[in-house]
Amino acid sequence: MSSSVTSRPTALYGGQTGRRVTVRDIAAAKERGERWPMVTAYDAMTARIFDEAGIPVLLVGDSAAMVVYGYDSTLPVSVDDLMPLTAAVVRGSSRAMVVADLPFGSYQASPRQALETAVRFMKEAGAHAVKLEGGRRVLPQVEALVSAGIPVMAHLGLTPQSVNVFGGYRVQGRGQSGDELMADAKDLEAAGAFSVVLECVPADLAQRVTTSLSIPTIGIGAGPSTDAQVLVWQDLMGLTERPAKFVKKYFNLAEEMDRAVRSFADEVTAGSFPTPEHSYH
Ligand code: KIV
């Protein structure tokens, strides 16, 4: 009897699929109570490393505005800025689902604008899903995308595109606003979102949202109870100068790169690089 690969449940992290991770795999992981990691990626080489490590979902975040383009918020980055990064991450990976973040100003105006932007990310860059920020105010956008066949990852809490409304990067959902966030999360689920990022919210609120939803929650600064956790790769690798409290540094890449580039420079100035080993004869 032949068995279809797509119908077999598989561990999200590190599981062998022989194909891309899909929204069905993600839904099945929630049913199994399995936790999974997501990281950002912005280029083909890092995407390949994360993909081969078994990371099931790669987010081409609008955090590219800061970590790739050097802006001090996510607001300035455009669809045209993110499109080639998304295409590179898709080319660099073979198993991960690649989620494209819709940048500020590319979906808020109307469901039609959201659809046009998301279709570009799917058709031109090859993204498998999109992410957008906001609660009930973006429900028409979520519904339009889902009914067009586009998987939507929602994003609540500290949504960085609204930093000017929040008056800074602050924890969201404390007190009564926690009830609003819960209502937003339920409405996003009902509108068809396949997952929701919870950024910088109290851990107990994230836990309540996680148990109330049948779609997975993906935490960043949301405590230990969410179904998945996401970090910006430059934060987790130790490239970011002043990371947020929720960041755990798993490596000191900045220090390693500094050491390496200084060794290179010293050897060049001393005339000890290249040696015959690195020369053609
Ligand atoms: O843009 C981004 O990197 C994000 C994650 C922090 C969730 O939205």
TrEMBL record:
A GO term, aspect molecular function:
magnesium ion binding
User: Which subcellular locations apply to this protein?
Assistant: Cytoplasm
Annotated family: Belongs to the PanB family.
Enumerate the active-site residues: 199 (proton acceptor)
- What InterPro entries does the record tag this protein with? Pantoate_hydroxy_MeTrfase (IPR003700), Pyrv/PenolPyrv_kinase-like_dom (IPR015813), Pyrv_kinase-like_dom_sf (IPR040442)
- Supply the source organism's classification: Bacteria, Bacillati, Actinomycetota, Actinomycetes, Streptosporangiales
Q: In which pathway does it act?
A: Cofactor biosynthesis; (R)-pantothenate biosynthesis; (R)-pantoate from 3-methyl-2-oxobutanoate: step 1/2
Source organism of this protein record: Planobispora rosea
Quaternary structure note: Homodecamer; pentamer of dimers.
Cofactor(s) the protein requires to work: Mg(2+)
Catalytic activity reads: (6R)-5,10-methylene-5,6,7,8-tetrahydrofolate + 3-methyl-2-oxobutanoate + H2O = 2-dehydropantoate + (6S)-5,6,7,8-tetrahydrofolate
Give the EC number: 2.1.2.11
Q: What does this protein do?
A: Catalyzes the reversible reaction in which hydroxymethyl group from 5,10-methylenetetrahydrofolate is transferred onto alpha-ketoisovalerate to form ketopantoate.
Stated name of the protein: 3-methyl-2-oxobutanoate hydroxymethyltransferase
Which gene is this protein's source?
Answer: panB
